[in-house]
């Protein structure tokens, strides 16, 4: 199946130009990719004029409106039939596209995708998953990163299954290792939902994942585990704490490097090293947060992603389609559905 | 009142030697400090022999046993009358000491302190607070860092009052700014408890704090706020994510500096800069996590703290006693007690 990706051309800090350039880069690497650009037709045409190769593989779907960066999810939902974001997701639902990529408002994209695509049978709530850099060669899949502020144990078990399916597709691991984020690694630590999820995952058998208990947040970047599962509040806190700390340390470094002439010279000489660091931490190399658990593939590109970042997001979307993430999640769900009772149903 | 600090001499990675050396450093800076060392008498005597000045201001209380680093809180409680940690806290309760400092097992110290000292009237649960480095001159007070995995809005309001009292004492701020950790800054974001706490704090008046809404975890280290309040799960996740990220970035830096001869030379030349960085991030400069909300002052020194770190913890303990943290918390509690209804009572 040739992946045909619907691109919300209007989202993100830059918008049309970088979304089209990113798609062109992805198309350059993958000759079979097809695109459906959704948004202002005139501007998309102008941007495509610079990329004839991409142009030949693209169609345009004109959208009158856009979802603003500060729109509330409820506002975005009301208007979704006319917005580039809403129409890109609708194209996935109708089958015109096999996946959607947007760099727009995350909350709006979540709400629109949830309403249009609904969740896979057996999944109570979708989750936002992303790839975070580690000291090892492979990134760690972490979810939920903010879609669900409060989660019960059943949600967490479903996230484990979804995250493992994602890791298997991206890295080809047969049984990715999975841990629950916790405030200690001993049994009995943490909240009720975390305890309950650990119980259910320990008892499950035949899953395409290797549940290894708990991980603390200082080990997220060590690469000791393939998938980290948590509720959306803690996941968002961890993700943003990591981002903030990386910025904090590099700011401090910059400040101290500039504190003396000697340091300045040292900084210039060692610039290739600090650039290697920047390269490794660059979110563009890890771009492509995914809403897992929906009847369709929707990838959130970072608002500030450059064309390399957008190309990454497009490739992630295509991989998830080609390797049928939906089917993999469903298969594994059958193996745990009996284990985590329906405490979630009432929530 | 001359502060008399009970020191659990046996806790921490190194134990007696560093605890005594740290106390000696604090005593060197503050002539009025008195000490009660609790632990193995022979070893404490030997360590004190190197510090005659400290020796003259110290008594020793022999304890037969120690709380091991991996003991569960329940085990530690059972045996607490014979352990150096249990006896140091008991000395605070009996009035023999005005505060206790331990570098031992955090969970055990919390459990022992809670049982022996009980909470201040009006406080449902104590919290673990610490000072974290920022880009500004003052550290940020953050709590809870792991004492209570699950919190309701009433707990969070109480933590806000306790954290502000801590910030006022450490930095002399009249009305420290306080924010609740959240996954967005818009109204309506986050969990029920976070929403409820924000409501109560917005309505409260006459508090010795300035409630300013929400802060996201990427802003913890910017210094934009004096006190950050959250539940123990998220607080622990944020703290450890920060620690892990700092280590991750410095490891990456080291690796990239060593990747070429040119970088190595640059690294050597810029060493004063990287040392400034290490100095700023060194936990020994921010040591002294405090259990707030108890009828007594208990400070947790980091297990790996050196003598400078222990001296910091001792000074924090003395400051909290001298500036009567307990009284300040009680005063402010009266002003919010009517605002956050007793949803916590049943939990």
What features would you describe in this structure?
Chain A is an alpha/beta fold. The first copy, chain A, folds into 2 domains: 1-117, Isopropylmalate Dehydrogenase (3-Layer(aba) Sandwich), CATH 3.40.718.10; 122-294 and 324-347, Isopropylmalate Dehydrogenase (3-Layer(aba) Sandwich), CATH 3.40.718.10. In chain A, 46% of the residues lie in helices and 15% in strands. Chain A has 13 helices and 11 strands. In chain A, helix 8 (192-203) links the parallel strand 7 (177-181) and strand 8 (210-215). In chain A, helix 1 (16-29) packs across helix 12 (307-322). At the A-B interface, helix 9, helix 10 and helix 11 of A face helix 9, helix 10 and helix 11 of B.
Characteristic key phrases:
homodimer; 347 residues; alpha/beta; Isopropylmalate Dehydrogenase; 11-stranded mixed β-sheet
Task: Sum this structure up briefly.
Chain A is of the alpha/beta class.
N- to C-terminal distance of chain A: 38 Å
Multimeric state of these chains? homodimer
Most extensive contact = A-B, 63 and 62 residues
**Can you say what the CATH homologous superfamily of the largest domain in chain A is?**
Isopropylmalate Dehydrogenase
- Portion of residues in beta strands of chain A equals 5-15%
Number of strands of chain A: 11
Q: Helix-strand pattern of chain A, N to C?
A: EHEHHEHHEHEEHEHEEHHHEEHH
The portion of residues assigned to helices of chain A is 40-55%
Reading off the top of the CATH hierarchy, the class of the largest domain in chain A is best stated as Alpha Beta
